[in-house]
Amino acid sequence: MPRTAVDRLAALLPPGFTLGVATAAFQIEGAVDDDGRGPSGWDAFAHSPGTIADGASPDIADDHYHRAEEDLALLSRLGVDAYRLSIAWPRVQPDGRGAWNEKGWAFYERLLDGLLEAGIRPVVTLYHWDTPLPLEEAGGWLSRETAERFSEYAAEAGRRLGDRVDQWITLNEPATVTLNGYALGVHAPGKQLLYEALPSVHHQLLAHGLGVQALRASTDDGKIGITNLHAPVSAKSWRPFDRLHAGLFDAIFNRLFADPILLGRYPRVPWIAKRNFAPLLDAVRPGDLELIQQPLDFYGLNYYYPVRIGAGAGPAAGAPTGHHRRVAALKRLPFHLADFPEFPRTGFGWPIAPAHLGTLLVQMRDRYGDTLPPILITENGASFPEPASTDGPIDDSERIDYLAAHLESALDSVAPGGPAEGVELAGWFVWTLLDNFEWAAGYTQRFGLVHVDFDTLERTPKASFEWLRQLTAARERTAA
Ligand code: FCB
Question: How far apart are CA 360 and CA 426, in angstroms?
Fold first, then answer.
């Protein structure tokens, strides 16, 4: 991107706006047996046949556990304000209850110290999908007890790391865990329960509420939030059944996870699916919703793509799921994800629709009004086909365009006079620093600003890395 374009974008950034990058422990750390780490539900899932594209193993991933220094140096070169990382729960508490693993905590302490020395604020996600295996085997998020265990873990994390962490995120995308993990079975734990997966919604939200309380009690001044995945949902046509199912999908995907947190109640669901929600309501006990609706310092929002819904089980053409496994449960759904022929697509097949990020922010303001805390876009990015090895920087201009257009759309939307005026947008995190283990897609989807050769583990910054470096530098110039 020419300098002038970077300068122009930098000039749009309000003072104090956070520019960051995000990662998740399971996707980069590797070292799955090192220093007392226990297995997670994801280790077990990924090692069952047919779950991961190309049969890839997450055991080494980016080997970040052993290369954290090198990765810190990359972050420091990038000049970002903040780094969002996640703690692998089974690394610090192998059984998910009881004894703590000192070596696991020591790894994160070193990492946080390294960030602080580099002047980068640590943003820490407690749960980015790697449930300790013993807890998963005892029911995982279908069991209410997992929420209690999570709250003990959150309290301990607060006690040990509270003096170093700037912002805490309790859970990452509980919607994906429920939908992909428990309802459709394309992620760990691989269950295809459809509506019977709904108790996992409530127990994750409960874990969030208990986790916020635990962190507030064990830390002094860290700010606390959650990260939810959001997508503006539209209907494939004006036909009433398409619209009804779009409303149903919107309730399941967006509102189910945001309404209880921000409004203290579960959303209304269209009549077509009312009866199916019984497993959710059965899980709710008196006082739970008050617990879930904790005051938050920020609301984390991940945005990748918009969703268009049609009635009836469909071919899932262009479905933004990116899963090679076409599971049986998908065919039993009463709706399908329809294509967006008007938009170009990422390597995952996800429609590239930056204007929809602006629309999403409008929707958040309209739905949640004054109850909406400042928003942090905690993930935004794209994968594109790139070679397995490289001799020099990859010219990933598509990624640069994707990132610039999305950041600009978000900033324009919340600017004075913009359609989402009134929303406080506090920051934006690129997904992600390094090419990594992209869950069920294995190593086939490269989202990184830095190319990783998975044979040699060599890191090579892409052109998009240089672009973000220029943006952070231009902003400093503008501020000076
Ligand atoms: C999000 C996940 C993240 C990564 C991106 C591509 O849903 O939170 O770990 O897989 O998608």
Answer: 16
Task: Tell me the C-alpha distance between 131 and 127, whole Å.
Answer: 8
Report the greatest alpha carbon distance in the chain.
Answer: 60
Pocket of ligand 1 (CB under 6 A): 24, 27, 172-173, 176, 229, 302, 379, 431, 438-439, 447
Quick: pLDDT tens for 334-384: 999 999 999 999 999 999 999 999 999 999 999 999 999 999 999 999 999
Q: Which residue from 92, 24, 85 is spatially nearest to 58, judged by alpha carbons? A: 24
Q: Which atom of ligand 1 is nearest to the CA of 172?
A: 8
Probe residue for ligand 1, chosen from 52, 126, 173 as the CB with the greatest number of ligand atoms within 8 Å: 173
Contacts for 394-400: CB closer than 8 Å, 24+ residues apart:
394/451, 394/460, 394/462, 394/463, 395/462, 395/463, 396/462, 396/463, 396/464, 397/1, 397/463, 399/449, 399/462, 399/464, 400/1, 400/463, 400/464, 400/467
Domain range list for the chain: 3-479
Q: Give, in words, the CATH class of 3-479.
A: alpha beta
Whose Cα sits closest to atom 4 in ligand 1? Answer: 438
DSSP string, 113-165: HHHHHTT-EEEEEEESS--BHHHHHTTGGGSTHHHHHHHHHHHHHHHHHTTT-
Single pTM value for the model: 0.97
Atom nearest to 176 CA in ligand 1: 7
Stretch (H or E) spanning 431 = strand 425-431
What's the residue count for the chain?
480
- Assess contact for 127 and 170: CB atoms under 8 A: yes
CA distance 441 to 444: 6
In this structure, are residues 249 and 377 in contact, taking their beta carbons and an 8 Å threshold? Answer: no
The set of catalytic residues is 173, 379
**Neighbouring C-beta atoms of residue 22, cutoff 10 Å:** 27
Q: What is the 3-state secondary structure (H, E, C) of 366-377?
A: HHHHHHCCCEEE
Q: How far is CA 255 from CA 74, 287, 373, 379, in A?
A: 37, 20, 16, 19
pLDDT 10s digits, 218-239: 998 889 999 999 999 999 999 9
From 326, 291, 290, 333, select the one nearest 310 (Cα to Cα).
333
Distance CA 202, CA 205 (A): 5
Q: Rounded to whole angstroms, how far apart are CA atoms 275 and 233?
A: 22
